[in-house]
Write a structure and sequence with these properties.
The protein has helices spanning 6-12, 32-41, 44-48, 96-113, 124-137, and strands at residues 20-25, 52-57, 61-62, 80-81, 85-88, 91-94, 118-122, 150-154. By secondary structure, it is an alpha/beta fold. The longest helix is centred in the middle third of the chain and has 18 residues, at 96-113. The chain is globular and about 50 Å long.
């Protein structure tokens, strides 16, 4: 473990008593409202309320296909997605236009409603959360977006695609 320099320590310091501002990214073909309900049903929203000020956002794309069986009977729409992927004979093919649009939408939201201390994602939202952290670590996030202090991932998956 490498000790942080004094300047790095002050940049990562959190004011005691201040809630962390957290941007929440929902899962595939759900919504901000559904993610909020899922956290409430799991009793996490109450447990986190003294620590986090959570801003839930909808993905910029309406769901382009069937709503998952574990969502439709329990949650009302509208439903959104961050990206789509299709199985092809050579593997999974991602919609690069949707990935780019979603990334720009999240960065725009961070500018408009930030600063954010952390990003939280569930399933597809966790993939985008991990990508944001990776971009930050690689120095590829816009310089006007303050560095994230942490991320919270629920039901994530390993990202193998370079453009994610």
């Amino acid at each position: 473990m490498v000790a942080a320099e004094p300047a790095e320590q002050s940049a990562l310091r959190i004011t005691p008593g201040r809630k962390l501002r957290c941007l929440a990214l929902h899962s595939w073909r759900t919504s901000a409202s559904i993610f909020q309900q899922q956290l409430a049903r799991a009793r996490l929203q109450d447990k986190l309320s003294d620590l986090l000020d959570i801003v839930f956002i909808d993905a910029p794309h309406l769901a382009s296909g069937p709503i998952p069986d574990d969502v439709l009977p329990y949650f009302e729409g509208p439903y959104y997605e961050w990206v789509t992927a299709e199985e092809t004979p050579v593997g999974v093919e991602f919609d690069l236009k949707k990935i780019t649009t979603s990334h720009h939408f999240i960065v725009s939201t961070m500018r408009k409603h930030g600063p954010f201390d952390c990003v939280m994602g569930f399933s597809q939202g966790s993939v985008l959360t991990a990508a944001l952290v990776a971009m930050q670590l690689a120095g590829k996030m816009p310089s006007d977006i303050p560095p994230l202090k942490c991320c919270i991932l629920f039901a994530g998956m390993k990202v193998r695609e370079v453009y994610l």
